[in-house]
Amino acid sequence: MENIEIAAILREMADLLEIQGETNPFRIRAYRNAVYTVQESPDPIRKMVEEGEDLTELPAIGKDMAAHITELVTTGRLSILDEVSKEVPRSLVELTRLPGVGPKKVRKLWDELDITTLDELEAAAREGTIAGLEGFGKKSQEKILEAIERHRKRSGRFRLSSADELVQPLIEYMLQDERVERLEVAGSYRRRQETVGDIDLLAIASDPGPVMERFVSYSQVRSVEKSGDTRGTVILSSDLQIDLRILPAESYGSALVYFTGNKEHNVELRKRALQRGLSVSEYGVFELAAEGEGEESTTGRELGKRVAGRTEEEVYAAVGLPWITPELRTNRGELEAAEKGELPHLIQVDDMRGDLQMHSTWSDGKNTIEEMLAACAAKGYEYVALTDHSKALAMTGGLDSAKLREQWKEIEEVSARHPEIRLLRSQEVDILADGTLDTEDETLEQLDLVVIAVHSRFDLPAAQQTERLLKAIQHPLASIVAHPTGRIINRRDPIEFALDEVLACAAEHGVAMELNAHPNRLDLRDIDLMAAKKRGVKIVISTDAHTTADLDLMPYGVEQARRAWLEPADVLNTLPVPDMLAALGRG
Fold this sequence. Notes:
The chain is α/β, with parallel strands linked by helices and 587 residues long. Helices cover 43% and strands 14% of the residues. Strand 17, helix 21 and strand 18 (512-516) form a beta-alpha-beta unit.
């Protein structure tokens, strides 16, 4: 059981207790704190249990919680959860995932309307029954229906980081078998999309039968949907579907191309092949034979000699193209660019010279300034920006001007101890509902960078939200707009505003847009980044780190940038610090 699965069960336990009406708030908080600890752990908790490590040494993990986690890892179940679910239907937890429907409202729906599932909630809302409940009303009923629709669109999709956590241990497990000669993940996972629906594994094996048996016997498999000689499908305990195909070596490259590119990319690739008298499929690249002289293909055409298929490079070369990196295989002009020799030199993690958004214990971060700076220095960064929150975000302990000045003293002391890296004075300043900034100008003037962000009033009408952003971007001291759309993947939709207008304004005023690398956000989206580049807007990639472990999230941002065709020159924090600051008008 991986961290993501442990955290999900502990979160479910906390939600059920709250729905049940648990009178001890500390008990519920203990589970929620444990969820955070498990999620943020850089190491698999299961390994700590397997090696007999003391879980109580982890933050917020007491003796009882350690026992619960150990039980989960060793048995796959939590007996106390089974007990509580005898009184409270577990299906109620899904209702709490809807915005505005907390545990107390769920309890009311259950008690008064006997609603226990999403389908029952939707039916009651459509019948108008919910509007009559105290504390709800007609507007709440409408919002519930909208939320259910959004929830259904998201269901079955796993964030990329969640997929990483579930897939990597399986790959390690499979590669322990010496009969597995090669194993790679294809599909949207290999393209590094923000979310994935299922996972395609492609393998070469000297003896497929035992390898397939090993696959379906993986400890985290909940059910085996299919198990043949060369194809198998399993569902993990997390609900993630994994498909394994064991292929002959001569078809492996073709299969990798076929199962990596999206549908549109593959269609265009097949068109190019047909123009050259070839057929491309998951089995290889073949010459098209004259009628009656070849073997019939899946497209109904008769195939002749195999001309490629062992490697991806062979497949692309057969249709007159160089190899195309997986992130670009989405039919956004990559085939044409490849033909002209104009594929971009995409940004890489090693190009990053600094991280321009992170938090410390001065606001809602979990590590001190020095710990964050030392961790950044260990990554070889030349500079970082400390961006603790401003005062409007009270729940994070946001800083007013007086506290910010106190923080500067510590920044000075820490910087003196770390001459190897430059620590930039900055702040993540709230954009208030009217577009003004949450920190006074006389304080902002003394910062190296001013990062501005929306953290409230996400529901403003699009026109008002647009005006709010335009006004903030036009502030003469604004440097970077953080997580511009405010989305949280699978949880919160982007705020509504006129992106083109905002990008045009940012370009005019020299304000950069952040690509927030946290896998819960990945904000801006790839298509928005492409629009920003077209407008001449510069991008910064930041982790929004709240712990030292979060600094490791930078690759997710870089992968998102690569899918948007971004090169190092498009990203400001690939520059030396004087050039980066000058580009933002702070030099």
